[in-house]
């Protein structure tokens, strides 16, 4: 499933579908949130390979801090897959383009911190009302005592200082072709002027861009191979 051990689930279920069959899982949703985690960033940096920041890591996340603190803003939906997929046809075996996804998410940040990357979680409806979740705020409700699935971490090559009263825009793509699946991600940091009192600078917008990252994993430096 997405942001777990198997990011190829959508493709595999597509090609194995059977008329009148039951799909397990029947749907799954990916979530994302910005993280401050200097320890994990340092571990990746010690790999001494620039390509290490083009990959994502399935890992038990600890020694970290959620930059988005309010509950409604913290874990945001990237995309959802449902089965059977109405956009699938036999041509899907060669193109797989119906499984492309993209998303833009904005996170409101009230306190200062450092942005080292993003944590990815998922929720799945297995069948009827049977669900599981890796989201920290839902795992005890939907998947109590589950230890078989872990979050994913998408690092940034360069960490960013996040001032108080700022916004993090994340652009995220799930790319695919006939042979592989890969993720690409880019982030922008904005100062939210609407929350700054006694601001004497006149701007045409309520926010000002103060940083932008590279586009990570562009053109599939790191990818997962599709199977027949």
Describe this structure in words.
This protein has about 230 residues and is mainly beta. It has one domain (about 25-225): Hnrnp arginine n-methyltransferase1, CATH 2.70.160. The protein has helices at about 10-15, 40-45, 70-75, 90-95, 140; strands at about 25-35, 55-60, 65, 75-80, 100-110, 115-125, 130-135, 150-160, 165-175, 180-190, 205-210, 225. Strands 1, 2, 3, 4, 6, 7 and 8 form a seven-stranded antiparallel sheet that branches. Strands 5, 9, 10, 11 and 12 form a five-stranded antiparallel sheet that branches. The longest helix has 8 residues, at about 40-45. The model has no long low-confidence stretch (mean pLDDT about 85). Keywords: S-adenosyl-L-methionine. One of its GO terms (biological process) is regulation of DNA-templated transcription. Pfam families: PRMT5_C. This is PRMT5 oligomerisation domain-containing protein.
Main traits of this protein?
12 strands, globular, seven-stranded antiparallel sheet, 228 residues, single chain, 40% strand, PRMT5_C, Hnrnp arginine n-methyltransferase1, mainly beta
